[in-house]
Design the sequence.
């Protein structure tokens, strides 16, 4: 049976990330695509130890089955490794609205060169922000604080 | 490919991550502050994630039907191939940081090379993990500086932590017949060649922390051959308890 990759992606765009339900797994770049030849959906983990990986795979299988696409395989691909540069523009906007500072597009490549771009506060937009802890509530987030509105906020790590 | 030497090599890589991940997990709920608790638990999670992929790959290469869980939970201490550094007890926070600093600095250099492995699956795992390990190495180096250049008490503890862990550094870079053979075939990293870069990074951080250079000890070796300290058995007992008591139990 021929696979309509665009429709599969539309269906997958309804699957929320289990830890950040404001964004979908497509927004986050966790869905790497649909391999029509092998009838497979390709997923990539954000972090190797991300505890949500299994929950995401189960949610994908459940959602595909509910849309009559249960015959598709779900495969994990590691290469190339996931990067925050794959978070879509819509995804970044949703993260910001949810109170999580998204990494600016292209920031991951910059960080590897040893530079950190300033992170605007998702509430007031101030760039006077500092890191409180490099590790936050999940592996993919760090804890930051705004020096103007004084609110703490999660920052999606550049990765 | 059924290749005992290569299987052994993948076990070494996977067991390092697994054992250190389990060790760090012991801090969960006990760390000095909430931020540190989160940091150590997250580093632990990354390492267990690496171990899952590395041991899974080892099982595939072995071809005898053992998956990552089977290898993690149903091997005895003598069959583990991790280095002795990672099985050392947590001690105080400074000792934990000393171990993390030395190991993550080494692992970052190693995975950077493994990312170019001709084994596509190992290269993919390493390329993914090295980004996480870079974070671990930076976190640990930051704490070495804060503790070393901190109070008299924190400095003393950092000195003692490094003093204990330093004896296990040579083993990280030791090449035995298995790895030399694999290295000649391009399948393993020549770790001895990473030593200069490692020493330079360590020396730079210690200088920044106003700490003395690493003490030189008689190296302690044996982990890669399964000759472990008594600590490993005590680490494995709670980790393996459930799968040993109720084999093949699942959630």
Sequence:
């Amino acid at each position: 049976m021929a696979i309509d990759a665009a429709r599969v992606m539309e269906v997958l765009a309804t699957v929320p990330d289990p830890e950040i339900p404001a964004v979908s797994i497509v927004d986050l770049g966790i869905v790497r695509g649909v391999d029509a030849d092998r009838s497979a959906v390709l997923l990539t983990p954000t972090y190797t130890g991300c505890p949500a990986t299994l929950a995401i795979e189960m949610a994908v299988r459940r959602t595909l089955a509910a849309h009559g696409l249960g015959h598709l395989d779900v495969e994990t691909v590691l290469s190339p490794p996931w990067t925050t540069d794959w978070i879509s523009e819509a995804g970044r906007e949703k993260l910001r609205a949810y109170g999580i500072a998204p990494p600016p597009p292209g920031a991951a490549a910059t960080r590897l060169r040893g530079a950190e771009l300033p992170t605007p506060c998702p509430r007031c937009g101030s760039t006077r922000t500092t890191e409180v802890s490099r590790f936050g509530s999940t592996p993919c987030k760090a804890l930051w604080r705004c020096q103007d509105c004084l609110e703490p906020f999660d920052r999606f790590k550049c990765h | 490919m059924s290749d005992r030497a290569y299987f052994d090599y993948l076990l070494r890589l996977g067991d390092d991550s697994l054992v250190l991940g389990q060790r760090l997990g012991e801090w969960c709920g006990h760390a000095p502050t909430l931020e540190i608790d989160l940091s150590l638990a997250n580093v632990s999670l990354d390492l267990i994630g690496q171990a899952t992929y590395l041991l899974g790959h080892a099982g595939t290469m072995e071809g005898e039907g053992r998956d990552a869980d089977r290898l993690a939970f149903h091997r005895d201490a003598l069959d583990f191939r991790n280095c002795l550094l990672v099985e050392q007890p947590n001690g105080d926070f400074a000792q934990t940081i000393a171990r993390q600093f030395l190991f993550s600095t080494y692992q970052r250099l190693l995975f950077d090379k493994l990312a170019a492995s001709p084994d596509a699956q190992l290269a993919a795992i390493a390329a993914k993990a090295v980004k996480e390990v870079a974070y671990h190495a930076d976190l640990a180096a930051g704490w070495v500086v804060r503790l070393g250049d901190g109070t008299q008490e924190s400095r003393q503890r950092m000195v003692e932590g490094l003093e204990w862990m330093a004896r296990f550094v040579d083993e990280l870079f030791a090449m035995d017949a298995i790895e030399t053979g694999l290295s000649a075939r391009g399948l393993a990293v020549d770790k001895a060649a990473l030593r200069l870069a490692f020493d330079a990074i360590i020396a730079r951080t210690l200088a920044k922390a106003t700490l003395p250079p690493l003490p030189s000890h008689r190296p302690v070796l044996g982990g890669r051959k399964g000759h472990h300290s008594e600590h490993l058995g005590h680490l494995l007992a709670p980790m393996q308890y459930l799968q040993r008591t109720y084999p093949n139990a699942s959630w």
Summary: Chain B has one domain: 2-243.
